[in-house]
């Protein structure tokens, strides 16, 4: 055409739609991030912890009071019902839930780190991608997950114990009324200032880790094994009732096997608390002293309310975790 050349469109470099990364500020990016297995497990674990601990808060507090009560104290001696009734009569509903706020503040990151780190460690233990782990490998991953979660959140755990004990009948606190009891931050500041600084917030962590590692490991191992057994052939998930049963059974087995470590943990957490009378020098000293003064059953004080607590606690925890996790994983579809 009159010798004129027709201009051609300059080629544009384009990325196939299938590999285009979402804009970090877009909803698609958020959905993609939340649907990652470790992230979904982390968030779901936090939700599971808050739900499970709130459901059983009165039994959790009564268990702690049983654990820290020495042989010369009889204020909370007797049945679980009598103990709960006494708390209600003396402190009302606030007494039943005392320490639960701190416990939730602790348990949300604790449970989130536990479930998230378990799925993180599983990546290194899988014989092949997405392969099912053996019971022993589940036990190991769960043990490391327990150690990780406790290390991050232990100061909140020791404060939760102090809040549970300080208003009990046997706690002899001079010139302090229920209305003037220190809260979470007040207790933490007091421990830091008068009981040895930062290390005071980690008092009792050794017996805690000794008990938590096998407890969490057993919990994950037993739950996933029972869950697999409860899953009908050809289906991916068992029914909600069966998942609740699996959670209750796994918690009961793990708690019973490791309970003496829990008693030692609580005793060390109040070891320097005025009015309680405990001055253990070491784990061995605490163990021998408890057995000598309170018998072997002293290592299992509070086991009954704990087992009554652990069934609904772990059942609701595992169910909340799986429902929340599955919802988040579905966001990538």
TrEMBL record:
Species of origin: Gomphillus americanus
Listed name of the protein: Mitochondrial thiamine pyrophosphate carrier 1
Topology within the bilayer: Multi-pass membrane protein
Any one GO BP annotation for this protein: transmembrane transport
Protein family (similarity comment): Belongs to the mitochondrial carrier (TC 2.A.29) family.
Coiled coil: none
Function: Mitochondrial transporter that mediates uptake of thiamine pyrophosphate (ThPP) into mitochondria.
Domain of life: Eukaryota
An annotated Gene Ontology molecular function: metal ion binding
Subcellular location: Mitochondrion inner membrane
Alphabetic keyword roster: Calcium, Membrane, Metal-binding, Mitochondrion, Mitochondrion inner membrane, Repeat, Transmembrane, Transmembrane helix, Transport
GO cellular component annotations of the record: mitochondrial inner membrane
Solcar repeat feature ranges: 36-124, 133-229, 238-327
A family per Pfam: Mito_carr
